[in-house]
Amino acid sequence: MTDTYIGAIDQGTTGTRFMVFDHEGQVVANAYEKHEQHYPEPGWVEHDPLEIWENTKDVVTEALADAGIDADHLDGIGITNQRETTIVWDRDTGKPVHNALVWQDRRTTDRVEALEDAEKIEWIRGKTGLEADAYFTATKAEWLLENAEPLKMQSSRAADLRDRAEAGELLLGTPDAWLVYNLTGNHVTDVTNASRTMLYNIHDLAWDDDLLSEFGVPREMLPEVRPSSDEQYYGHTDPEGFLGAEIPVAGALGDQQAALFGQTCFDEGDAKNTYGTGSFYLMNTGTDAVESDHGLLTTIGFQRSGEPVQYALEGSIFVTGAAIEWLEDVDLINNAAQTADLARSVDSTDGVYMVPAFTGLGAPHWDGRARGTIVGMTRGTRKEHIVRATLESIGYLTRDVAEAMEADSGIETTSLKVDGGAVKNNFLTQLQSDIIQTEIERPEVDETTALGAAYAAGLAVGYWESLDELRDNWQLDRQFTPEADAEKADAMYSRWDDAVERSLGWAREE
Questions:
Q1: Separation of alpha carbons 366 and 387, rounded Å
Q2: pTM of this structure
Q3: Is 502 flagged in the annotation as binding?
Q4: What is the largest CA-CA distance in the chain?
């Protein structure tokens, strides 16, 4: 009998990865390619959707070739993706009308402030579970329909674009929908990605007419919403296409929900934190959509075919790994691996705090005009102090969310599963445990985002039969327990709020 596998496309903020997993959840093939980041104006971030699609084909082909696996040995493909990132494309030609507006993009901050002035924040939160913010898809979609192709178009052309959208000639989607369309020809998204658009009612499980009207988004351009693990499948790859095989595309999850699924957080109270460009702390709240009183988001965790939606509380931290990249950008470090040695070389930050609010602050602060801030420097401050302060800031931001999570859920966090590139840094992971005062568990397979997408697709096609099989696959690599006592951790954390306060509201327009 020929071995078969499940493939997962992980379309992230900085690049696209394809991984192939076996029945034990072990990686048997892996390829990755970066795509270009475009910054046309301060606070604007864009990606080229066509580059992402070309890179997707390249990494799929490369991973299979390197591992010597034929495409027809894939029983299914799952997709996970950077959420909220917004693409509008022509239904017939498949060409985007503009670059994708990335989740980090802040160009619609004014629109969000107008919503606040109109006292519509609670109205939006009640339907979507989300804090009204430029982070989400709705205001990005509105901006694209008003301004796309070219940026300085005539008003009549803008009207044409909206008319075309109403006629169903243009399609809207997050990167999962873009990839499903290119792989299968179908316009489909899953419930987790839909729940991040600020256009989807997470209680009614439907696109919301009132929100569509508010943001001027025609229903005709929206994808069909399906379960995250879909036994009916989203479609099949074209046997005449680049893979040369007809493979079911059977699951999709936004990247953070995929990590929740890959970490086997299937039960109420299970929690994980993913450290990537940003960090995203999610707790499964079961079939109840728990409303947050402490600046967290209520979102959809996942849905399996024929089963109720599972909800989650989420703390979205916009910048963590990107703060380490910034250290490299400004030549304070040569590579990310250096941070541990530099931070360890000093006993403390010597009173320096760094708030990495490069694209505003997410949960629980929610200030789109906050900006990166370093405070407490003296003439004796060295780069080692700044590097350590940057690593500590990741812990402080995580503790902000952890405390909000406990307050909203009533569940004390005693153990936290972690994943993502940054947790390979033992010093940083230990620092997280010390600051949060919580046990941290790092799994052997740390690419849990791709693994979650594979699990979703694999369950749908019958590659795995049950959640218990997936739980059995989860293996601990290392557990970190607090080495600093609670009093020291509290003292380190005590002035963090003061530093955050100084970063707020900085990016005011002239």
A1: 25
A2: 0.85
A3: no
A4: 69
Q: Coil, strand, or helix at residue 321?
A: helix
**243 CB contacts (<8 Å, ≥6 apart)?**
60, 61, 71, 237
CA 274 to chain centre: 9
Cis amide leading into 364 (omega within 30): yes
Packing angle of the helix pair 383-409, 426-436 (nearest 10 deg): 50
Which phi and psi (to 5°) does residue 426 adopt?
-60, -35
437 is in an annotated binding site: no
3-state secondary structure of 361: strand
Q: What is the pLDDT of residues 202-215, one digit of tens each?
A: 999 999 999 999 99
Q: What pairing do the DSSP bridges indicate for beta strands 310-317 and 279-286?
A: antiparallel
Q: Name the phi and psi angles at 311, rounded to 5.
A: -95, 170
CB 263 within 8 Å of CB 272: yes
Q: Cα separations (Å) of 277 from 64, 324, 326, 384, 484?
A: 27, 9, 11, 22, 27
Helix (H, G, I), strand (E, B) or coil at 262: helix
Q: Name the residue type at position 360.
A: G
d(Cα 479, Cα 506) in Å, to the nearest integer? Answer: 39
Is 17 annotated for ligand binding? Answer: yes
3 state DSSP class of 314 = strand
User: Does the structure show a pLDDT above 90 at 451?
Assistant: yes
Whose structure tokens read 């470090």?
A: 333
Q: For residue 449, say whether it is annotated as part of any ligand binding site.
A: no
Q: For residues 422 and 486, what is the distance between their CA atoms, to the nearest angstrom?
A: 24
On whether 413 is known to bind a ligand per the annotation, the reply is: no
- For the stretch 107-157, pLDDT in tens is 999 999 999 999 999 999 999 999 898 989 999 999 999 988 644 444 445
37 carries a ligand binding annotation? no
C-alpha distances in Å from residue 178, one per residue of 47, 58, 341: 13, 16, 41
What single string gives the DSSP state of each residue in 204-251?
A: TTEE-HHHHHHHT--GGGSPEEE-SB-TT-SEE--TTSTT-S--EEEE
Q: Is 388 annotated as contributing to ligand binding?
A: no
402 contacts 438 by C-beta, under 8 angstroms: yes
Is 255 labeled as ligand-binding? Answer: yes
Residue 277, annotated as binding a ligand: yes
How many other C-beta atoms lie within 10 A of the C-beta of residue 204?
9
Confirm whether residue 193 is marked as ligand binding.
no
Query: Is the pLDDT assigned to residue 508 strictly greater than 80?
Result: no
Q: Whole-angstrom Cα distance, residue 440 to residue 433?
A: 6
- Rounded Cα gap, residues 205 and 98, in angstroms: 29
Distances (CA, A) of 31 to 55, 184, 272: 10, 22, 25
